[in-house]
Design a protein that fits this description.
The chain is an alpha/beta fold. It is built from 10 helices and 8 strands. The protein has one domain: TIM Barrel, CATH 3.20.20.10. The chain is globular.
């Protein structure tokens, strides 16, 4: 067992079985990803369209690819044929494009709405009001090939003195998710990264996104 596999198993054994671990492969080689594929892992995530396409072409087709970064409208068509889950939807326009593309390939594309839960400028996302507008949009409600299954959020950088801030941010997203769970039957809450997934687990996350803690380098 190599270091990557060892780190993965060390984390997995302490996480409830119902939690999905999306391994973030940003800046990682094909061989590094294959190490995790070899031990049965199938959920991998990317930040950039060009990277996810390159890796999709080179790796086994039973991998479940998650798009976790922002996407430009004109690039959505490139991931539509194979993407498993898009975590970062913020515009009704993107949902409309995805539905059109999904119809072409006779498949359903699942998405999450990315909610902004911290005030850092480099963290994107929409407000709860924006999310309500998308979910209540009649065009979306009539779409047959795109489905929003839940929410995603990114907390502030985890500094010890700001630990309460992280708790507050995850608590807010959890409350929003629970409201939508009742109203829209959502069942995916994607929050928690290498630096804060242990806190996210306390606030009901169903999906964590890990890169650094598995690959051992900043990604």
């Amino acid at each position: 067992m190599n270091q990557i596999q060892h780190r993965f198993f060390s984390i997995k054994k302490n996480i409830p079985k119902h939690i999905t671990i999306v391994v973030v492969t940003k800046n990682q080689t094909i061989s590094s990803i294959e190490k995790l594929y070899e031990i049965g892992h199938r959920d991998f995530g990317e930040n950039y369209v060009q990277e996810i396409i390159k890796k999709y072409k080179k790796l086994p087709k039973d991998i479940r690819w998650h798009m976790i970064g922002n996407i430009q409208s004109n690039k959505l068509k490139y991931i539509a044929p194979f993407i498993y889950l898009i975590h970062s939807i913020q515009k009704i326009k993107h949902i409309q494009i995805l539905n059109k593309e999904a119809i072409k390939y006779n498949r359903k594309i699942h998405c999450l709405l990315q909610i902004k839960i911290c005030n850092e400028k480099n963290k994107s996302g929409i407000t709860k009001k924006n999310a309500d507008e998308i979910l209540e949009n009649k065009n979306y409600q009539n779409m047959t090939n795109v489905k929003i299954l839940g929410l995603m959020g990114m907390a502030s950088l985890s500094v010890k003195k700001d630990i309460k801030k992280i708790h507050n941010e995850f608590n807010y997203l959890n409350k929003t998710y629970n409201q939508y769970k009742k109203k829209y039957h959502h069942y995916i809450l994607s929050m928690g990264m290498s630096r804060d997934y242990d806190i996210a687990l306390d606030y009901g996350t169903t999906t964590i996104r890990l890169g650094t803690s598995i690959f051992g380098i900043k990604n």
